[in-house]
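hi! just following up on the protien thing from before. the input was this:
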Amino acid sequence: MLISRTPFRISFLGGGTDFEAYFNEYPGSVLSTTIDKYCYVTIRRLPEFFSYKNQFTYSKIERFNKPDEVEHPVLREAFKFLDVDRIQVAYDADLPARSGLGTSSAFAVGLLNGLHRYKNETISKMDLAKEAIYLEHELCREAGGVQDQIAVSFGGFNRIDFGPHGYKVRPVDMPPERKKELNGRLLLFFTGFTHHAGELSKEQTANIPARLSQLHEMKALVDEGETILHGRGDLREFGRLLHKTWELKRTLSDKITTCYVDDAYEKAMKAGALGGKLLGAGGGGFMLFYAEPEARESVRGALSDLLEVPYKFETGGSKIIYAGGD
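and the predicted 3d structure came back as:
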């Protein structure tokens, strides 16, 4: 038996420039971090006593003999891609799926990481991320960017650059005390409903030619944000950058925000937040806000109808945390 653990991520700046339709023409960049909320994939050999050869347990249980019998696209294509059989797979997570924290890509990365280890194969973090991108985009035909797979595979607080010739991951060299201060000023709230990123991503991709100026500006904010985090500038300006990127992001598609999200955002800003954004493709899920210590309780009070999720930044990325037994 083995267990992989893969973190979820928060994307701060540059989202949208990690779409291939953009970075094949213009350099793309994002600023993101992984957090101590995870998905877990447990893999073990299935004994030969059953009428089925494989089992996948998630929100439902799928029992099958051949991968093409599987409804879940990522598991189906991963089994075929890595040619595995006679396996039992189970998925668990700290937070709900389709909530803007890269959960689907975390599952893809964690599953591939576990299956490679099951086959006694080693794989680098970059190759793991590239395999997950290939699995989701090419084999499963899912739309979207490529930042999530890279972020959760590597782990940590990084700047990730994208171009037609590949990707580059560069850890943000942030003083430890500044990193702690930033973590304490970022509040994470769950709106209580999830979104379907695929359709939103398809529309966003189609809109890229008409939204180039916004995307260029969103990419430029990555440089500003990185400079602030390095210690050169007031940390409060990072909160204002979140507000600026949210104002730009909401113009990329008319489905990114909702009246409910806009109302929550307005309440937080009136309560003292300096900025924030809806995480992920849009439509629902988690919201992030930046608030100075003196405004945190006021923001929490204004959003008391939402569930706050405490978290810390993490640095490990996708790992095998147990391997033993059968």
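Residues 227 and 233 are 7 Å apart (CA to CA).
DSSP finds eleven helices and 13 strands in the chain.
cheers
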